[in-house]
Amino acid sequence: MTMASERDDIAGDMAGLAAAARRAARALAGATTEAKNAALAAMAANIRQAAAGIAEANARDVALATTQGRSAAHIDRLALDPERIEAMATGLETIAALPDPVGAVMAQWTRPNGLEISRVRVPIGTIAIIYESRPNVTADAGALCMKSGNAAILRGGSDSFQSSALIVECLRHGLKQAGLDEDAIQMVPTSDRRAVGLLLEGLGGGIDLIVPRGGKSLVARVQAEARVPVFAHLEGICHVYVDGDADLAMARDIVVNSKMRRTGVCGAAETLLVDRAGSDRALRPLIAALIAAGCEVRGDGEVCAAEPRVKPASEDDWAREYLDAVIAVRVVDGVAGAIDHIARYGSQHTEAIVTANAATARRFLDEVDSAIVLHNASTQFADGGEFGFGAEIGIATGKLHARGPVGLEQLTTFKYQVRGCGQVRA
Amino acid sequence: MTMASERDDIAGDMAGLAAAARRAARALAGATTEAKNAALAAMAANIRQAAAGIAEANARDVALATTQGRSAAHIDRLALDPERIEAMATGLETIAALPDPVGAVMAQWTRPNGLEISRVRVPIGTIAIIYESRPNVTADAGALCMKSGNAAILRGGSDSFQSSALIVECLRHGLKQAGLDEDAIQMVPTSDRRAVGLLLEGLGGGIDLIVPRGGKSLVARVQAEARVPVFAHLEGICHVYVDGDADLAMARDIVVNSKMRRTGVCGAAETLLVDRAGSDRALRPLIAALIAAGCEVRGDGEVCAAEPRVKPASEDDWAREYLDAVIAVRVVDGVAGAIDHIARYGSQHTEAIVTANAATARRFLDEVDSAIVLHNASTQFADGGEFGFGAEIGIATGKLHARGPVGLEQLTTFKYQVRGCGQVRA
Prior knowledge:
CATH architecture of the largest domain in chain A: 3-Layer(aba) Sandwich
CATH topology of the largest domain in chain A: Aldehyde Dehydrogenase, Chain A, domain 1
Distance between the termini of chain A: 64 Å
Strand order of the largest sheet of chain A: 10-9-11-8-7-12-13
Number of domains of chain A: 2
Number of strands of chain A: 16
CATH superfamily of the largest domain in chain A: Aldehyde Dehydrogenase, Chain A, domain 1
Helix content of chain A: 40-55%
Radius of gyration of chain A: 24 Å
Mean pLDDT of chain A: 94
Shape of chain A: globular
Structural class of chain A: alpha/beta
Number of helices of chain A: 15
Oligomer: homodimer
Low-confidence stretches of chain A: none
């Protein structure tokens, strides 16, 4: 078989996936909430029943990744134990319990000529999810897309191919058990990397949206090459600004939590900005608390002068997403200085201000151009669950359609339904 | 001067525009409604004051276009008479009278831990408008972007360069008179076509959104090449489906109005679908009414058999946007047949059903995947003004963020503002 015909085969396979997804999406758009929830319940039961098989397939994936010399962190993301398999099943049940966004009337009004206009939530269509080694994304992303009425085309990392294939079978069987089209959730049947390129090109109108789930290099490639809309964030360079009017104990708790609760999440703080007014009072205790919590502190000249354990920060540090127990600290001139610093170095993800001054807080919340801006709270609240969305497929820093946590509602669009009684236009 | 250095000059000029727009957008995001409305009023006054000069500049544009052999339709779009100049001024006043979307709280809720989350409308940032010969788009698009808090970079057709330049001066002077940054509205200072390519690439993050205003070839180029989001519709292949349960007099009025009120607008019907049940009753009067109104009718075999003046339609006719007094007519098997035909040939713009059967209407409104679906009303209501938006920058058929008429609200995005009292995450 020649290379050219192999490429044709992949293109043909992918076009087939897209056509089946389109058919399934059309049917799923009209499915009842009851049918979708029954499918999610069946999927959860199927995963519990297949737990031993999933664990076995995962063991083979892990063994292969180990022989290929993957890192311990990579293997940890890939590995499924009984608790993680059970968490997948309960995750599906959580999604079943969430309200169905499809069909909700977002707005409704009547025109002087009697036309009744409704803005109604509808599914987006076909969503491609491109992810890396975590096999649990398979269940999570497939279920979120399905509940919001969308067909999902899943493309997991080749490392998790065997685990993901079994999980997808549990999901598809659940759709069938509930009388829904099983092609509403499909997996790319090859680990050939050219399949990703075809998804990014949009499969000739077959893909309405791409959601990458993984590290920065995956997201960067998707953002650079996708010819269809993408919901993602490239990085979360999140800031905490401690104003001169901050309560110092509150500031210390928020700074340490924002940085150290979990350092590997996108809502973790990477830079601390301290108001010059009051820095002589605030800087030392804040740095001491961070170092006591196990954090490396890198600072500008003033910060280094305040505390000998601080390492000097370079220009690069202000634009670094450490995702680790490291923080960059800078003294700025009030809230205006903080806003300027964030505009220059931030990633429009999540920023917090700590202050007792309501006017200063309002200015920060209004002028910082990020998806999430917080007053007197930790940046680690940047999460769909913490927002009350129940579940999220990720966090978006793009400005259009979805911004911040992406839950079921953000996976829908709308149409205008207009009801008349024979109106024509003059 | 070499080609390379000329290209560098254009790239440098465009980067300068983007940087100035970014600065202006940051300031404009916090401008009061009063200041923005004062600017719009000043712009309107400036245009009235400069009317003679604008007419002179336009006469030079028209003379040049005439010597270049442009079509009569092209010259008509380009030409400004006193009425059109006055319409620009009143258009600005209309936009001033519309509610300001910026700052509106779209949703607000409190979490069990006391965090208060608000979803607040904010401007998108910098919007590039790429248009063709109509110089009035300059005022219209610039004002809509400004009122919604966005910086506008305008790139009109080279034909209207002199008229547009004078209009932009009126707008910028109005900004200055109201104490706002005049760089909130800028015009690409060259008719060099490479400037468009640079805009489509997004000027290194400087452009948040592109709105093309013009013919199909312009929109197709923008959609194919843009590396940033685009609000547009490529074409409006709009359908009217006359169900077997339709009131025939209502159907006739709606069909004739949908097709013939204005044939050149994107909401004009291009295809009429007639239910086989009742086609013997409905087909002849509908065709007769269209022909009496001056419309050419092309039909499938059954339609041709019903009326000798019908020309046979080819496969191409089902996917044609005539934008002319021509319509394609097909007999379909009920609402399911209509929905299938529209899914296959439609452009997801606007479709109408005429029926007295509420269940059939509901099925059509639910299952047709278009931005606007109407029951018992003309497709020509596909218009921001008719929706009550006051003004529109266009109609979008993309599914994300903006769908249907794009007014002030659709030119905004949102951020989450979260207010706490020291909450940290467990």
